[in-house]
Structures are given as C-alpha cells and as structure tokens.
Write a structure and sequence with these properties.
By secondary structure, the protein is of the alpha/beta class. It contains 2 helices and 6 strands, in the order ααββββββ. 24% of the residues lie in helices and 19% in strands. Helix 1 runs antiparallel to helix 2.
C-alpha cells in the first residue's frame, strides 16, 4: 500500500502547491519510484496538462485521471506505459489519440 500512497502524495504536493524549486524536486522523486503499479488521481481537482514525466512510471498497470480539469493533448509518453491495462481519462478536456 505504501508503494501506491507515496507517489500519490508527492503528485498532490506538486500539483496543488505553489510553484517553487522544492516542488520540482518532489515531482522528480514521484517519477523515480519505479515500483508504483496503480495511480488513482480521479476526482482530485487537477488542472492543466498531463506532464510527459508520467511516462516514467513504466510499471503502472492502472492510471485513473478521470473527472478532473485536465486539458490539451494526451502526452505520447503514455505509450511508454507498456504494463498499463486500465487507463481512465474521461470527463476531462483532452484531445489526441492514446499512443
């Protein structure tokens, strides 16, 4: 359970906090946790683009980002998630195809 909780908290620390150097370091730490297998950020009030660093979580099997205010193109780096079996992006303003 801890393997799932730590990256979730780090993600929230970056997305919901003020932008400063510490948060950039948190973002890097989040994506250096290679054993994360599920990430559920649905209904979290997230806004903006899906960052390309999401593609670094190569062990993900489930990624839930639905019911947020995400916009823009689906990053091609999602194609790096070769273990992904469930991807939930609905109820956002995303465009493009899923790689």
């Amino acid at each position: 359970m801890i393997k799932r909780l730590v990256p979730l908290l780090l993600f929230f620390g970056l997305v919901l906090g003020d932008c400063n150097d510490d948060e950039v370091e948190l973002w890097d730490e989040c994506y250096s946790i290679e054993n994360t297998i599920e990430l559920d950020l649905s209904n979290s009030g997230l806004e903006g683009l899906i960052p390309p660093e999401i593609g670094n979580l190569t062990n993900l099997t489930k990624l839930k980002l639905y019911n947020n205010q995400l916009i823009g193109e689906i990053p091609p780096e999602i194609g790096n998630l070769t273990n992904l079996t469930y991807l939930y992006l609905y109820t956002n303003q995303l465009s493009g195809s899923i790689p």
